[in-house]
Design goal:
- The protein is α+β, with helices and mostly antiparallel strands.
- It contains 18 helices and 19 strands.
- Helix 5 packs across helix 13.
- It starts with 15 loop residues before the first helix and ends in a 14-residue tail after the last strand.
- Bound molecules: flavin-adenine dinucleotide.
- The site of flavin-adenine dinucleotide has 45 residues, from helix 3, helix 6, strand 6, helix 7 and strand 15.
Length: 667
């Protein structure tokens, strides 16, 4: 059997998952008590998996590098989570969510996985409501929904601008119950440093206690990697500062294939970069595109005057504004998918219409919504709908109720009041669709090693739509892994505890210690951040929103150069056996420097444009992404061969049997 067998069950697409669940091996309750599972990461993907597996009876050891699972990057998710519940009676269904997600992924995702995701989506909402997650509700008490880009129904469930936080509190409370019962042993402030493989199977990890520096061995019958995404390879991204690729990269180097590394999502509505001092970018939720209109001045002289501070955006008449998304994509308007909105903003800024000092910003304007909501409120309450001041006041109050925390965040960062002047936004790296390759059971190419959430290459293909990541992470943790992991663990009911004295643990621990010692003793001259910033600049300039062969080849050479310099000249202050965040960063940046090269190699071999991957050589005359289904309808799964630039490509051919492949259009 090929190593890249995705193990997709046979049968009609809507029966595959049910049928699979009916036939997988089971582990009986008594046997579960003698099986250990390690979960690396306790964000939404890992937290939900840890809680579920422990509830089922397995002994779970869960790891996170923060001081609490509550601080995983999942907490940052603002906009919402998709589910095909059709509460709005707008024609939604499992099939439509499946269809929209496959189309949104530009036909580069696995049909069977996406269908399952759509199928379990409704149960996620029920599960979270049962945990007490305070989703927004309508006046009558029903759960409310928003629209997100690239779809024509309202299926996004949300909790103000804090959906991720509320969902994470739900998962954390489910975990806490199991921590209290002793079924989950929680290792906060611990970082997985390597995977341990015994007889070809994942049997444990080497972890570092980040407070004391102690190196620890932990064994289990299976290891789940739920360590999040790798957007920080760009240095500047909307990800949390600590988000990293190291756990995923370590399993890749031990034999797990890494899939579609170049599929990255650039989010159109982020606060623009303001200068070299920054180490983090801030997202303004996609939900704002429900009510905000995106525009730039229609005339170059107005754009210039605005940049020079000689004109204000509010002084420009309607006729002098270019609502470029509404103009180019009338059917979806401001709610086109993220890649389309991002490239359209870049195109206008590259053409000289940018509105901030750097020329890299467009407006997101709520004036029309203030008026629309204000008039509605005036009519409802019997006020004069022609009273402009009153209408504005009432409209602002409605917008504040919906997005108040986002407006406040914007004002704190930019020091401008977005109720009085339009917000300025620009695209930024946000989410990585690529990741560790997994089969239908979420198992990597290493037996017993699983990957879930953003860490796996997942179900999103080339262009994840908004509000799908939370859905996928929670689907994996609450509803998929709990079934599929048992199929594998059923073979381990007689294995007994795995000893950490095995030579494989010793060898892995030695490698980890050698690398840490190297960093502390290298005594170079440049900080870790110095190298990370340089890597990020190459990635953004040459492997970012638009890529071409020349730039990618240059990027590969430059990344190698930076990596060489890093190993010669990096300086890590502090000691080994103490809380040393520079040491933590050094290990993570070393891995980013390898991943960055594979990322560029992957982008170079994919001679087409699809969703989040835009090759300038492959576009329509109108500048839209041009796919090549004949040659590139596959998942690119890379096998590590000792050097990131020389990884071996394996192709998982994608078959579309339930959806016709079309060139994607949102016009
Ligand atoms: C600003 C922002 C807003 C977003 N909004 C939305 C939204 O509205 N809707 C949506 O669907 N998606 C959204 N996303 C995407 C979504 O939030 C993420 O994809 C998702 O939360 C990832 O969850 P996760 O559990 O896979 O990873 P994370 O939440 O990143 O968790 C990773 C876990 O792994 C641990 N970890 C990592 N490495 C190691 C290691 N080596 N050792 C031990 N532990 C480790 C961390 O401590 C953490 O516990 C947003 C993303 C961003 C950046």
């Amino acid at each position: 059997m090929s190593k890249l067998d995705a193990k997709i069950p046979v049968g009609p697409i809507d029966k595959k998952w049910t049928d699979h669940k009916n036939h997988v091996n089971l582990v009986n309750p008594a046997n579960k008590r003698s099986i250990d599972v390690i979960i690396v990461g306790t964000g939404l993907a890992g937290g939900s998996a840890a809680a579920s597996l422990a509830e089922m009876g397995y002994n779970v050891k869960a790891f996170c590098f923060q001081d609490s699972p509550r601080r995983a990057h999942s907490i940052a998710a603002q906009g919402g989570i998709n589910a095909a519940k059709n509460y709005q009676n707008d024609g939604d269904s499992t099939y439509r969510l499946f269809y929209d997600t496959v189309k949104g992924g530009d036909y580069r995702s696995r049909e069977a996985n996406v269908y399952r995701l759509a199928e379990v989506s409704a149960a996620i909402i029920d599960q979270c409501v049962a945990q007490g997650v305070p989703f927004a509700r309508e006046y009558g008490g029903m759960l409310d929904n928003r629209s997100f880009g690239g779809v024509q129904v309202q299926r996004t469930f949300y909790a103000k601008g804090q959906t991720g936080q509320q969902l994470l509190l739900g998962a954390y409370s489910a975990m806490s119950r199991q921590i209290g019962k002793g079924k989950i042993k929680m290792y906060n402030r611990h970082e997985m440093m390597d995977l341990v493989i015994v007889d070809g199977k994942a049997r444990g990890i080497i972890a570092r206690n980040l407070i004391t520096g102690e190196i620890e061995r932990h064994s289990a019958h299976a290891v789940v990697i739920a360590s999040g995404g790798y957007g920080n390879v760009f240095f500047l991204s909307t990800n949390a500062m600590g988000s990293n690729t190291s756990a995923a990269w370590k399993v890749h180097k031990k034999g797990a294939y890494f899939a579609n590394p170049c599929f990255t999502q650039i989010h159109p509505t982020c606060i623009p970069v303001s200068g070299d001092h920054q180490s983090k970018l801030t997202l303004m939720s996609e939900s704002l595109r429900n009510d905000g209109r995106i525009w730039v001045p229609a005339k170059l002289e107005d754009a210039k005057a605005i940049r020079e501070g000689k004109k204000k955006p509010t002084e420009l008449a309607e006729a002098d504004r270019d609502y470029f998304l509404e103009r180019r994509y009338p059917a979806f308007g401001n709610l086109v998918p993220r890649d389309v909105a991002s490239r359209a903003a870049k195109e206008r800024c590259d053409a000289g219409f940018g509105v901030n000092k750097t020329g890299e910003a467009v407006y997101l304007d709520f004036a029309a919504s203030f008026e629309r909501y204000g008039k509605e409120q005036a009519l409802i309450h019997g006020h004069d709908a022609k009273d402009k001041a009153l209408v504005l006041k009432l409209g602002k109050a409605v917008v504040e109720a919906k997005y108040g925390n986002l407006f406040q965040m914007y004002e704190k960062i930019i020091d401008q009041n977005p109720y009085e002047t339009p917000m300025m936004i620009y695209p930024a790296v946000h989410y990585t669709m690529g990741g560790v390759w997994v089969d239908y059971n979420l198992m990597t190419t290493i037996p017993g090693c699983y990957a879930t959430g953003e860490a796996n290459f997942s179900d999103h293909g080339a262009n994840r739509l908004g509000a799908s990541a939370l859905m996928q992470g929670l689907a994996d943790g609450y509803f998929v892994l709990p079934y599929t992991i048992g199929d594998y663990l059923a073979g381990d009911i007689r294995t007994g505890e795995i000893s950490t004295d095995l030579p494989e643990f010793e060898a892995a621990e030695k490698d980890v210690k050698d690398r840490l010692n190297f960093f502390i003793n290298n005594k170079g001259t440049k900080s870790v951040d110095h190298f990370h910033r340089r890597l990020g600049k190459v990635m953004w300039d040459k492997v970012g929103m638009a890529r071409n062969a020349t730039g990618l080849n240059e990027a590969i050479a430059e990344i190698r150069q930076i990596r060489d310099e890093f190993w010669k000249d990096v300086r890590v202050p502090g000691e080994l056996n103490e809380f040393n965040q520079e040491l933590e960063k050094a290990g993570r940046v070393a891995d980013f420097l390898e991943l960055g090269e594979l990322f560029a190699v992957d982008a170079l071999q994919r001679e087409e444009s699809c969703g989040g991957h835009f090759r300038e050589e492959h576009q329509t005359p109108e500048g839209e992404a041009l796919r090549d289904d004949k040659n590139f309808a596959y998942v690119a799964a890379w096998e590590y061969t000792g050097n990131p630039g020389e990884a071996k490509l394996h192709k998982e051919e994608l078959k579309y049997e339930n959806i016709e492949m079309k060139q994607r259009s949102y016009k």
